[in-house]
């Protein structure tokens, strides 16, 4: 196991769910965190919480970026504007992502599609494109992409979300191949059902519908996923965990789920 003490970790989508849980576990390991998301007030709150609970020594160990990963010039500007002591990013966690809607493809909403493809695919590409060259130059680094079980097989009405996560899988494989011969590692984590704000976002704020997704089963928590991310990041430098599929015990495939009747 290697330490993340003083390593610089950039987490996209750190304002909620899996990204927030990653921030907490890496802070606990002594990492310096660059936290990015659109909701700066949420990042501020998280930074204060980490400082108050002693998870980080001071707020100087955290750098916050208000960032929409869909906006390529904004991503470029944010990376270029990092102060010198924050530029050498060791670990990039490409976590920002969302699903929008659960509709048959022929009834789908164009706006929902754009949001998913722009965030989950293009946003991940932009952030990676601006950060990985520095990793290659420095001869060290680790890119951890949050894919999904949905990237392995489509499920009914999941069409575009599943496609976006299949793209994350292919991009992760391709990046690993392109970085062969460098010391930069690439990992893709593919969770099944995790109870976060994910379903609230998918159903455009319909919390009742969102709750039903996890009804009668014990889903993964954001912390469960963060544990696995942390495990992958702390292996010896010669070990690359290429992919991890983690699901709740109550889930066998994207569509086969065991629910206790209530
Ligand atoms: P949450 O909705 O709780 O968190 C999503 C995060 O992504 C938020 O911090 C949000 O921040 C950020 N985000 C969304 N759009 C953008 C954007 N354009 N620019 C920057 N940040 C953005 O969901 P999860 O924690 O569950 O999701 C995290 C990742 O895990 C996603 O990639 C998701 O697809 C994946 N995943 C989730 C599963 C689940 O069941 N929950 C299962 C498998 C994978 P903000 O709105 O402040 O910008
Ligand atoms: C998120 C989980 O249920 O859409 O990737 O596959 S699910």
Q: Which terms summarize this structure?
A:
single chain, 262 residues, alpha/beta, Rossmann fold, seven-stranded parallel β-sheet, 7 strands, binds NADPH dihydro-nicotinamide-adenine-dinucleotide phosphate, binds 2-hydroxyethylsulfonic acid
Please, could you describe this protein's structure?
The chain has 262 residues and is of the alpha/beta class. The protein has one domain (8-246): NAD(P)-binding Rossmann-like Domain (Rossmann fold), CATH 3.40.50. 40% of the residues lie in helices and 14% in strands. A seven-stranded parallel sheet has the order 3-2-1-4-5-6-7, with helices on both faces. Strand 5 (142-146), helix 5 (159-178) and strand 6 form a beta-alpha-beta unit. Helix 3 packs parallel to helix 4. The longest helix has 29 residues, at 110-138. The termini are far apart. Bound molecules: NADPH dihydro-nicotinamide-adenine-dinucleotide phosphate and 2-hydroxyethylsulfonic acid. Residues 99, 148-150, 158, 193, 254 line the site of 2-hydroxyethylsulfonic acid (8X3).
């Amino acid at each position: 196991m290697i330490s993340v003490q003083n390593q610089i970790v950039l987490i996209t989508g750190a304002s909620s769910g899996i990204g927030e849980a990653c921030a907490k576990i890496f802070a606990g390991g002594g990492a310096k965190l660059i936290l990015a998301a659109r909701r700066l007030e949420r990042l501020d709150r998280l930074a204060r919480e980490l400082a108050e609970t002693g998870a980080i020594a001071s707020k100087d160990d955290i750098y916050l970026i208000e960032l929409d990963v869909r906006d390529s010039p904004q991503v470029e500007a944010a990376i270029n504007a990092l102060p010198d002591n924050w530029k050498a990013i060791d670990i990039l966690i490409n976590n920002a992502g969302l699903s929008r809607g659960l509709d048959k493809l022929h009834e789908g909403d164009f706006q929902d599609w754009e949001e998913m493809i722009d965030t989950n695919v293009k946003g991940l590409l932009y952030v990676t494109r601006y950060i990985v060259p520095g990793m290659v130059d420095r001869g060290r680094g680790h890119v951890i992409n949050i894919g999904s079980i949905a990237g392995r097989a489509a499920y009914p009405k999941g069409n575009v979300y599943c496609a976006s996560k299949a793209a994350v899988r292919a991009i992760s494989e391709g990046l690993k191949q392109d970085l062969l011969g460098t010391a930069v590692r690439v990992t893709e984590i593919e969770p099944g059902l995790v109870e976060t704000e994910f379903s609230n976002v998918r159903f455009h704020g319909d919390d009742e519908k969102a709750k039903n997704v996890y009804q009668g089963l014990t889903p993964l928590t954001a912390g469960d996923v963060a544990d696995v991310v942390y495990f992958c990041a702390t292996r010896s430098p010669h070990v690359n965990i290429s992919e991890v599929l983690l699901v709740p015990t109550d889930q066998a495939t994207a569509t086969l789920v065991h629910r206790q009747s209530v």
